[in-house]
Backbone:
């Protein structure tokens, strides 16, 4: 599915998505047009889902993170959770809690309002909330070391 060059290109793009195509080509030892074609194919296959800028949430008064475990019997709960502006992630999980939700907000007052919105959703039976004190690691990077065999990170 991937060769070593694809993996190397993906490693480079995960490190710095805005890197010029010519620099990627230099690092992998290929012509820029060949690298561009590989990147296009990786995009078409859905391997590269997109490119995004990581913003500092504190700069936008969203420095408070929380994880909310939602027990629900409603099939529409996931979509309703996803539509709440402060919600960043909704994961359906195994166990008594049907969903694990990550959200960011300005402060405890806003958090309480959002938790009220979640409690009021149809089908929600209970919620449990954990407020984050400090984030040690947060990333969307995928570990590619299993696929390239050379230990490059």
Residues:
């Amino acid at each position: 599915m991937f060769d070593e060059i694809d993996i190397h290109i993906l490693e480079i793009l995960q490190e710095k998505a805005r890197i010029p195509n010519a620099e990627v080509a230099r690092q992998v030892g290929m012509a820029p047009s060949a690298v561009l074609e590989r990147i296009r194919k990786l995009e078409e296959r859905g391997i590269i889902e997109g490119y995004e800028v990581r913003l500092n949430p504190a700069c936008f008064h969203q420095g408070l993170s929380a994880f909310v475990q939602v027990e629900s019997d409603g099939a529409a709960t996931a979509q309703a959770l996803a539509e709440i502006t402060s919600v960043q992630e909704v994961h359906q999980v195994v166990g008594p809690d049907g969903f694990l939700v990550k959200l960011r907000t300005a402060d405890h007052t806003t958090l309480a309002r959002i938790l009220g919105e979640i409690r009021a959703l149809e089908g929600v039976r209970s919620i449990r909330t954990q407020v984050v004190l400090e984030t040690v690691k947060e990333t969307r990077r995928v570990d590619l070391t299993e696929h390239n065999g050379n230990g490059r990170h």
User: Anything to note?
Assistant: Residues 43 and 49 are 6 Å apart (CA to CA). Confidence is low (pLDDT under 50) at residues 149-153. The first strand starts at residue 64 and ends at 72.
